[in-house]
Design brief:
Blueprint: H1 2-32, E1 47-54, E2 62-70, E3 73-78, E4 88-91, E5 96-99, E6 101-106, H2 135-138, H3 144-150, E7 154-159, E8 166-174, H4 180-183, E9 184-194, H5 218-251, H6 262-271, E10 277-281, H7 284-297, E11 301-305, H8 313-318, E12 323-325, H9 345-351, E13 356-358, H10 370-379, H11 384-389, H12 393-398, E14 416-419, E15 430-435, E16 438-439, H13 445-453
Parallel strand pairs: 1-4, 1-5, 6-7, 9-10, 10-11, 11-12, 12-13
Antiparallel strand pairs: 1-2, 2-3, 5-14, 7-8, 8-9, 14-15, 15-16
Helix pairs in contact: 5-6
Length: 457
């Protein structure tokens, strides 16, 4: 009896040991695929890239030069630059150095799997007025999209909430850091307003796909748009009244204390023009509506979308409204539009003298295609120089960061990319990347999968 019990206990012990071993192996496999590479923030130091072709973007290209990265910034750049003692030298022969690309219109870090896992999506809030909502609070620094994006040469993005009339406040982030605060470049940059549009419905791109929506009379659609615009103006008036009540109470404490309204409080700096408002708009009539609204409300406006912005260039230039163009990969809206209607829009904006940049407009996974958006625009009329600037310096200028990033200049933040070819070419590989002067590991879910399967037969 005792021997049977001993044997039984031995079997239990063996099962337990095997469970621990197998469990440990599964844990190891899980640890290797749990996105832990997302937290690899690189290493700091002094770096010197020597003998490289340096594309400054802001000035002349240096065909054979050196760029020194120190204390997170570009310390020196030129054809005859001395390498500091102790610097880590990188042989740049045959390679080109560029500023890191900037996508000024994404939802990076706010959505992981949009169509299947609701818990991984934090794009919208309930209600129509959410000026107090801040994208920086919801950004997931360990999103798989971040590494997949940055290994393709994109170092910074604007990440914006979506939905409702006032979606919330967009943040500008670097694609490196263990927390949203570490990633933040500008925590609360701009307020996103989905500007009311004239929507007649019916047909592809008009509110109904395959006839799912009933067409609306144009005059009725205008009335609906105007009603929504008036609602938007009421928010401006309510905020003005609220601010006056606060100021009056601050001067005279005998007056009734105004109840705190977090949404109106958050809206105040945007209404005053202290911070920009990003208006989503695509068609010419809606873009002109934004320009009129910006003029009347005296706010600082930016268009995001901008399919037909070139048609409204006069109004946009008059009101100093730049465009974040997000439609290179989009299909033409109308049946009689040319196939290249949206490919050629950037070149038309450039010809019209509009300030613009190119963005993917993506939630996260396809932000990595930013260089190819610019490359396509470059193949359809936009000059090669403007195509590169549209995802570097022009983006930085529109975001008010041209003194910090967007080009290779001494004193700017060292967001630097070293590539083996033209940055906008699909065949080009990124060889080195620096964000805030830190050398970033060029790993992602994609590189791990490639390494796992490349040698299998």
């Amino acid at each position: 009896m005792n021997s049977q019990r001993t044997m039984h206990n031995a079997k239990l012990f063996l099962i337990l040991v095997l469970s621990v071993i197998i469990g440990g192996q599964f844990s190891l496999v899980s640890a290797q695929n749990d996105g832990s590479q997302q937290n690899q923030t690189g290493r700091a130091g002094t770096f010197a890239i020597v003998g490289a072709r340096i594309v400054t973007v802001s000035g002349a290209t240096i065909e054979n030069g050196t760029i020194v990265i120190q204390n997170g910034k570009i310390a020196a750049i030129g054809a005859n630059v001395s390498v500091p003692a102790g610097a880590e030298k990188i042989d740049g022969k045959g390679m080109s150095v560029y500023p890191g690309m900037i996508d000024a219109g994404t939802n990076m870090g706010l959505a992981e799997i949009t169509l299947a896992v609701n818990g991984s999506v934090d794009l919208t809030e309930v209600g129509t007025m959410n000026a107090n909502t801040k994208a920086i609070k919801g950004i997931n620094p360990h999103s798989a999209h971040i590494n997949v994006t940055r290994v393709n040469g994109i170092t910074s993005v604007l990440s914006a909430p979506a939905g409702g009339l006032m979606a919330g406040q967009a943040a500008i982030i670097n694609l490196n850091g263990s927390t949203p605060d570490e990633m933040a470049v500008v925590r609360e940059y701009a307020l996103v307003i989905n500007f009311p549009r004239i929507a007649t419905g019916g047909g592809f791109g008009g509110g109904g796909f395959g006839g799912g929506a009933q067409p609306v009379d144009f005059n009725e659609a205008v009335k609906r748009r105007d009603t929504q615009v008036e609602e938007l103006k009421k928010i401006f008036k309510s905020t003005t009244t609220y601010m006056r009540a606060k100021d009056a109470y601050a001067k005279d404490k005998t007056l009734p204390y105004p109840a705190t309204d977090q949404k109106l409080e958050a809206f105040e700096p945007f209404m005053k023009g202290e911070k920009p408002i990003i208006f989503t708009a695509e068609r010419e009539r809606d873009i002109r509506g934004v320009a009129k609204f910006v003029s009347e409300m005296k706010v600082k406006g930016i268009i995001m979308g901008g399919q037909e912005a070139w048609k409204a260039a006069d109004d946009l230039k008059k009101n100093n409204i730049p465009v974040i163009y997000t439609n290179v990969y989009s299909l033409p809206v109308r049946d009689d539009d040319d196939y290249d209607y949206l490919f050629t829009a950037p070149s038309k904006m450039a010809a019209a003298g509009l300030k613009f940049c190119i963005s993917t407009g993506d939630t996260g996974p396809m932000v990595r295609d930013l260089p190819y958006h610019a490359g396509i625009a470059g193949a359809f009329g936009l000059s090669k120089e403007d195509a590169l600037k549209s995802v570097t310096l022009y983006s930085a200028e529109i975001l008010g960061l041209a003194d910090k990033m967007g080009s290779l200049d001494v004193g700017k933040v060292a967001n630097v990319v070293v590539a083996d070819g033209d940055l906008l070419e699909a065949r080009t590989n990124i060889k080195y990347m620096f964000i805030n002067g830190r050398m970033i590991p060029l790993t992602s879910r994609h590189t791990e999968l490639f390494d796992s399967f490349k040698d299998r037969k």
